Amino acid sequence: MRRLFLAILFISAASTASNAGHWAMGGSMWADMPSKSGKSTYNSKKKSKPFWIENIQSGKKKKSANYTQIKNKKGAAKWNGGAKPHIASIAPPIVTFRSNYAKGSIVIDTAGRKLYYILSKTKAYRYPVAVGRKGFKWSGTHKISKKVNWPTWRPPAEMRQRQPHLPKVMSGGINNPLGAKALYLGSTLYRIHGTNKVKSVGRAVSSGCFRMLNGHVTHLAKIASVGTTVRVLKRLPKKVRVASK
Is the pTM of this model over 0.85? Predict the structure, then answer.
């Protein structure tokens, strides 16, 4: 009986010590994940998801220091884009879209901040997108010239003049602003691409490109091929009828 009592006492003490260590880290296995700089990415005052979990949108959460935000040196010629995890494809809602646009084409409604992939004369996939901010909006028709996974980012010279801290080149990865996929529009500098700034989607904040959630751009890239026609409109024509169902 005495041996049984001592065994229970020993197990209880070990459990208490383990819980104390757990809560000292913030109560979570993600609480003190180090960045490349060795600094913690956890903020006990901010109850949001860690950077890489919020922006990967891949479905599974993995414990890996490679998925933390990398602190690149401002002004350096080359920045590291970080890890390139698998991104799960996320289908957007199918909505009523009555138009004469060709099946398999893409229509971007800049005013509505939506991208439509035409499924038929009456249906389309509808994706939320970020569009160009004031002074960077445009309209026109192009074809998708290529599709790239985890694209390299090369900020144009004009952009680096406006923002001198930017690099000349940044490798693809979860820290790269082009996200998991990029669909290039003709020979222009514009792209439909993913993003590591989820909250920017649905806003007018870009330099002319169209940002999508990584899961959404992965889905679009599966169904839109090279040669797909992309129409960028200031706003949808009045004759086009759109409904949620």
Answer: no
